[in-house]
Amino acid sequence: MSKVTAAITAIGGYVPEYVLTNAELEKMVDTTDEWITSRTGIKERRILKGEGLGTSDLAVPAVQDMLRKRGIQAEDIELLICATTTPDHQFPATANIICDKLGAKNAFGYDISAACSGFIYALVTGSKFIESGQYKKVVVVGADKMSSIIDYTDRATCVIFGDGAGAVLLEPDTEGYGIRDSILRSDGSGRVYLHQKAGGSVKPASHKTVDAGEHYVFQDGQPVFKFAVTNMADVSAEIMEKNKLGADDVAWLVPHQANKRIIDATARRMGVGPEKVMLNIERYGNTTSGTIPLCLWDYEKQLHKGDNLILAAFGGGFTWGSVWVKWRLEAGRL
Ligand code: COA
Prior knowledge:
single chain, 334 residues, alpha/beta
């Protein structure tokens, strides 16, 4: 019997309606459209508005979109893994809430926390359940309501992040399509540059921590930028070398959308031209776990069966990695 791989057989996405433009941010903090565009490549981002709505409310429509495209029901899902940095609650896992809201009665679920690398960590984890033969329908959803942990008076972070979710379905394949290889890395010493100071067990939330704004994202942008450029580019080149893939063999780079300059540096290092780089940062900003599946969602009509995709991410932790995917769908269809 030929080896079983985990193929992506459907994609779904969801971004909330509200568009937060650079022009609106100019009125909120001391910044300019020119600064934001030239430093990050971002023009606008989506924000989930509404009392009582959380990350699961971004993930559910993304998974429903994916189920509709594949023509299956929520009851058919066996496992749902949610990558998120902004879970609905500290516990229970957002994956459980998503399953409940979907009516995925036969699924078990759990969350993966790896900041901006969350989606690729979850994708690789999900693929192992397919490769083992234990499950046949695994959903991986990357979702983040970043607006829930952003300080909209801090110009250094509020211009970068947005809300959104993307989901993929993994199913077994015996023709070599799907997740072919991955390199995942982490270095916890990087936590000092990018973290949330309070709200966890080290510093539980209190009046004092809230008054100090410690429930918001803290980022020391320049070191994060330097680590991201080096590591995302290195790991993308490494997975190509490991699998003897030349620049001509790669159809698409699917990069985490943190900063256009980091993406450009990664593409240069891989030797692939801008025409092969998926980019939607200008419309959504950095949606953390959502960026990579939202790129696949946006570009799926342009993807062909057999295309080699390199997924690459870098995020808080630090976490980073790359995944080689041989694309199974033809213009979005099986
Ligand atoms: N508008 C105008 N000026 C701003 C600004 C904004 N939105 N944000 C910061 N600045 C200012 C700073 O205050 C600083 O001013 P100063 O020189 O007077 O002190 C100046 O711009 C340069 O700041 P710096 O942080 O050095 O800018 P940068 O070129 O490093 O760009 C980031 C800032 C955040 C865009 C960049 O560091 C970055 O993208 N880092 C990685 C972020 C990332 O990827 N995070 C997610 C991890 S996946």
